[in-house]
Amino acid sequence: MVYFDNASTSYPKPECVYTEMDRCLREYCANPGRGAHAMSRTAAQGVAETRAIIARFFNFGDPERIIFTKNATEALNIAIKGSLRRGDHVIATMMEHNSVVRPLIELEKENGVEVTFLAGDMYGEVTPSDVAANIRRNTRLIVCTISANTNGIFMPVAEIGNIANRYGIPFLVDGSQGAGSVDIDFKAMKINLLAFPGHKGLFGPQGTGGLCISPGIELKPLLQGGTGSDSENPSQPQVLPEALESGTLNTPGIIGLGAGVFFINQVGRQNIEDHKQRLITRMHEELSIHPKIHIYSSKEPGKNSGVVAINIDGIVSTHVSKILDEQYSIATRAGLHCAPFAHKALGYTAKGGVLRLSVGYFNTQDEVEFTLHALQEIADRSVDVPYELKTHQCIQCGACSRSF
Amino acid sequence: MVYFDNASTSYPKPECVYTEMDRCLREYCANPGRGAHAMSRTAAQGVAETRAIIARFFNFGDPERIIFTKNATEALNIAIKGSLRRGDHVIATMMEHNSVVRPLIELEKENGVEVTFLAGDMYGEVTPSDVAANIRRNTRLIVCTISANTNGIFMPVAEIGNIANRYGIPFLVDGSQGAGSVDIDFKAMKINLLAFPGHKGLFGPQGTGGLCISPGIELKPLLQGGTGSDSENPSQPQVLPEALESGTLNTPGIIGLGAGVFFINQVGRQNIEDHKQRLITRMHEELSIHPKIHIYSSKEPGKNSGVVAINIDGIVSTHVSKILDEQYSIATRAGLHCAPFAHKALGYTAKGGVLRLSVGYFNTQDEVEFTLHALQEIADRSVDVPYELKTHQCIQCGACSRSF
Prior knowledge:
Two copies of one chain form a homodimer.
Chain A: E1 2-3, H1 15-28, H2 38-57, E2 66-69, H3 72-83, E3 89-93, H4 98-111, E4 114-118, H5 128-133, E5 139-145, H6 157-167, E6 171-174, E7 193-197, E8 209-213, H7 251-267, H8 269-287, E9 293-295, E10 307-312, H9 317-328, E11 330-331, E12 333-335, H10 340-346, E13 354-358, H11 365-380
Parallel strand pairs in A: 1-11, 3-4, 3-5, 5-6, 6-7
Antiparallel strand pairs in A: 2-8, 7-8, 9-10, 10-13, 12-13
């Protein structure tokens, strides 16, 4: 099996992630921060080590200002809903994932928050001047993905950070598609809030994610509950990280995440980025010469976090993905990728989304060649493919009318 | 090491939990519900199987009305905040954990929700008639733990369910301390919302939990985000489970949880309950005759989910726990147990909480005898123990002033 769905979740994980998670579960998986016994302290120490390694990895400060969440979606919801109040204005890009779009639309509908979604160029990249031009007196948050999940395009995050900083507006970055291979420097990029998933480029398991919160930013928690501290207080304590980490943490997951970041440090983040860049450059090279294949991702080095988004004339993306899966055992993702505005921005909604090939560190040149060959075969015989375009066909169960 | 901290998180887990999680991570841990390729379908099928086995285990109906959360705290927050509006009244007990108390106090302070916390008998058990007597015209939710985490006392959940049902008031049960060993029959107990942790009695890993939602109950989500479905819709879809499961699920954790429930079914839930009952009966038998030991848990069979809460004259609970840990390698938890009102109800706050011995299926009679012997030794020499009562001493780092 060839796995090109790393933008959904990375697979496989480094061996150390498997072994450290198993060791944690078997040897010391007590409740961290909930007891004073030796095993609980060992678990708490493991969690603290992951906080510390992540703080260093993103050039962030105090590890205690990193909160662990179940995924990047929770981190983004905490950052967005914890920041904005009725009457506030927020700027985001049209390339944001539904983990940003849906909370914003909810606040717009229910809480009177004003939202501006910025369109970008042919790949969706916004310009910093466009961000500056849309700042209002009541702009209280700027949200930007570091790289779009649909086509991998990078956003000019450092430049937007400069603008946000100049206007004193908190800057939230969604690191979902970059964290792990892309250089994310919290301080240099003038980020105030960085949401990240654990299970993508950072090589942790699913069930992990987090939010780095710069000093001075106070977020209202979405959850209240036991924090293991200040137990006699029936109100939520205000000290980080507990204030935003109610309930038992995912200790084995966080240990796995720490192992994942350790692996990146061992290999070298730049080497991972370079490897991915080589793979997508080769994909671009070959796919761009096929007359029936359209590419929606930038081939410019440094402009793509590892995604090649394409369509093949005459055949809807979900069916290309299905053929790749069934006939070649190649795992990809097709459709709208939980980013409705991104597709509108790029203009291919009507075609049923795009086929996304997302590469990871464990992909090889041979896998790329095999996949290019498969795509060329499918494109060459696309006129013969009997599938029809069904925008509301369920590609998961085949029976219901949900669209993906 | 002897582990008597199962009420915090169960340890160890059954072997099948370790092996199935590792197998999932290594072999098929794609993103469930986010792609149509074979590995994603396998992951989705594994998640669906856990939903199904849990639905059967609790005699619940449609598995699709079970949502997975990161812990019971998230499930309780979704149930409470998703149900209550300004001006509503809610009834809870004083034995609730902070995962119930803190969301309710937050709603009381910020959203004008009225809350009644009911006191119970000497063990905190409330009477159904007290619940009925406190129902108002605007009562919109009754919340009750199935068993208190401080001392294990059972609440008359079936009777309260009958009352709630008669008045048409949604009934939320916190299954944190019962689920797995206690018979929780969703339909027979007339429960409408059942929150459960995955990592305690159900033997799953940390990072898992869930909420069973009866038909007719609609909850407003706390998070919006990608659901893998209805991608072109910038608003949250309303269909369960996706509506309340934004972002990537904890697939390996959910697989482990399924394996945990499978293990319970193999052993027999009643056998687990009986085993735990035997252990706490023996503890009661021996501890109740020591003049310096006070027991705060019921010894009546069927009245205790597996907790023996005690104090030893002249020595604060956190220090008994410390001695047990350091000198006997016995893991327990002491202090307030994230349940401030429970301790007030039971009247031992001033003593710095209680020492909690919480048993699990993997504990043995020998471990109980060894622990009883240790406690007797500590109690016998308690006058010589140099520790002082410091209610605000941090028992985790020893340096800060946080209380636990």
